[in-house]
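In response to the reviewer comment on reproducibility (Comment 2.3), we provide here a single inverse folding case reported in full, input and output, so that an independent group could reproduce the run without further information from us. The structure tokens appear first.
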């Protein structure tokens, strides 16, 4: 369990949260989010599209009640990975982005990804989490490994070459136990 403090999530409000998200997704540290040139209106439109999608959801993560990260949850049978792998029952896709800060806290990003995974596995229907980060995003590969993800193979998506990785509930629990 994280000693950094409590995390909560709430559904993202595309209109109200667009300005905040714009600062996050256009920050240099968010280069792999691929929205560097987005306008605030572009960000609002993208998250309105996600909000309207039956199989894709976005959430704002809060740390001690303050916005701290973005979390997306999607059904890979219908979004992101259609035709790129054979989904299993209980597969859930995930993206996350930690807000940029001038005062980094050691271990914060790992605490965030752990909280995201806890949130996803809180649903008993979730059996495995699927991610597809850019092959060049070595920092997120290390974080994914730390919470139990196992890379399967590289895949070609329209926007990037990605590392398809999976984490079962058991792998997450084992990784969490190993870091305790």
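Designed residues, in position order:
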């Amino acid at each position: 369990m994280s000693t950094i403090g409590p995390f909560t999530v709430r559904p993202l409000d595309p209109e109200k949260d667009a300005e905040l998200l714009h600062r996050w997704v256009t920050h240099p540290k968010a280069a792999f989010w691929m929205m560097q040139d987005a306008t605030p209106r572009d960000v609002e439109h993208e998250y309105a599209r996600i909000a309207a999608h039956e199989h894709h959801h976005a959430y704002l993560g809060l740390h001690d009640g303050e916005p701290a990260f973005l979390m997306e949850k999607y059904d890979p049978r219908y979004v992101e990975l259609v035709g790129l792998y054979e989904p299993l029952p209980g597969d859930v896709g995930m993206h996350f982005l930690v807000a940029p800060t001038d005062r980094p806290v050691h271990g914060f990003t790992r605490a965030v990804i752990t909280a995201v995974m806890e949130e996803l596995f809180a649903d008993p229907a979730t059996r495995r989490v699927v991610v597809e980060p850019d092959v060049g995003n070595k920092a997120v590969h290390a974080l994914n490994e730390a919470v139990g993800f196992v890379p399967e193979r590289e895949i070609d998506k329209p926007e990037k070459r990605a590392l398809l990785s999976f984490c079962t509930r058991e792998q997450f629990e084992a990784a969490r136990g190993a870091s305790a």
